[in-house]
User: Fold these one by one.
Assistant:
Number 1:
Amino acid sequence: MAIMPVSRRQVLKLGCAGAAAAMVDKLWAGEQAKPAKGVNLNKESSMASQNNDIFKDAFENGKYKLPALPYDYKALEPFYDEQTLRLHHDKHHAAYVAGANMALDKLENARKNNDFAAVKAASKDLAFNGSGHVLHTIFWHSMKPGGNNGQMPAEFKDAFKESFGSVDAGLAQFSAATKVVEASGWGVLAFEPVSDKLVILQCEKHQDLTIWGVTPLLVCDVWEHAYYLKYQNARPDWVDAFMKIANWDFAAQRLAGAKQSLATAS
Ligand code: MN
């Protein structure tokens, strides 16, 4: 059986690394799915049989959708109680879904009317609610009835060892980092494709104006250092100038690459 390079969806198959998938999506360069040292997974392994395309149930008919839980409400007892799970999924996650769809509607109306007066608030709403939707969708799959009792697949242990020195050290860092996330947020185990390693991140709130899982296609720097010498305080002039020199061929290539990596991973 051939060893396949790790892909975004293969990372998704790792239950304990569910949150990693978000970062993979976010940072995925979009070209060729490149093998991660120590994260090479056998596509035909038993892990593959656990695969669900977890996002398939989270979007339908052009709208975000509350996905069904992959287990019964009582299935995580006593570690995660039924009442909390019901509220968390049926109310809180549902509110993110509704909020994201509402933000998309507002933005669609803004485009139709060419009236972007409320674009800042709508963009913030989309980031907050969209990120909440994506992260919760991954979160439900990050837990498993009965758990794995701390066990992880051999290939994933190798990735832990390479990234954190040892499995125990990585687990200790994940636990410690998650406990001290400032205010509200998430502990995130992620695959970081530049270093080709796993990283552990603290995510405050859950958005900071992005939706976890997106692949950047084109970016414009609006830190003052990017434009101040020429445009001083006139950031709009810089953005207008950028729009004239934007490389849409590059963006198109990245979009094709991102879609290809999804297609080849399925
Ligand atoms: Mn939550």
Number 2:
Amino acid sequence: MISFKNAYDQVLQHILNLGDETVSLLESTGRVLSEDIRADRDFPPFNRSTKDGIAIAFSAIEKGITRFKIEGVLSAGMPQQTLSKDTNCFEIMTGAVLPEQADTIIMYEETETEDGYISISKTPNKGQNIHRQGTDEKEGAILLKKGTEITAAVIGVLASVGKNEVTVKKLPKICVVSTGNELVEVEDKPLPHQIRKSNSLSLFAALERVKITPTLLHLADNQAIIEKELEKALNNFDVLMLSGGVSKGKFDFIPDALDKLGITKVFHRVAQRPGKPFWFGVQNEKQKVIFSFPGNPVSTFANYHVYFLPWLKKSLGVEAEKHTVILDEPVQPHPTLTLFTQVTTACHEGKLTVKTLKGNGSGDLVSLALADGFIRLPQGETEIPAGTAVDFIKAS
Ligand code: AMP
Ligand code: MG
């Protein structure tokens, strides 16, 4: 059995590089950029008005002029005009191009209109209310770096530089494999000795949130079937994500089957709770990675978040986020195991605090639905006092 730290480091040493692909702009949400995005023109691309009002030449103010003849009205989307003399003004709307020869904008609130003339009540500052060309970004500047996760705000930037298609990191093809003779389909009515599958569905939902649509496969606890089906799956997928069949039971055939199929075991069993019997292996030449989680729903769910998500981020070239939270109550660590304890979070005076959920062990998936995530408690003898900062793993 190895320590959590060792297991985590080993998982992150076996990332996959899956290459890049080009997708349409709106398909790229939630993906990771694999190209730098540059400004295709200045931002803003012209001197734009930031107010509805009038555009004047400041030279008029210096001459004491406070009443201007209206030369025309400029709306956003009109090409640039020229102010013909400094006794004139243009009415100008937010987003419109500043006319040539004008250099100052006065908002309507500080003006009065009468018979084709506009007078001003307050002396303006030269150059006010203009969002100057190129002051946000210059043409050619890098706006977004490769490795950026594409959020809704990023989509806005991509749209504004004309990226109709975006080059993103490819995602791994994943087969989620559930195992167990006791499991029936969601739509079936289980007999008294059976239960409905839940892990594979929960993993499916979690993977969809990171834009991966996995294929689901279910295997009975039968060594021959397991070997045959896993061999096929290994040919068709980059990652196998199994649940169940990796503990010490008489029907836990997965480690043997993977061994027979030429998968190199990196480790089996981690000093942690839940999720201790986690089996992790690779087939380096063929670029395959196998996460084989113990079947208890809380174990599968915790290990997915603890190991798989950071592995995925690193494979995609994204920095893993590290979050800490403050304990709202004292907690007791385990003397030899790293604990992943389910918690609910609350925000108190600018700090994210957590309370532990009293789940009924790693089979209790109902308590899981109430949890906002897990805190990681390193092994130890002494109680950790309230107010201590601990690592937090957010649930999907
Ligand atoms: P195992 O790791 O195969 O020994 O399974 C441990 C426990 O998790 C057993 O009670 C199983 O019935 C349960 N279990 C295994 N796989 C699933 C699954 N896909 N969905 C729900 N429960 C499961
Ligand atoms: Mg089983």
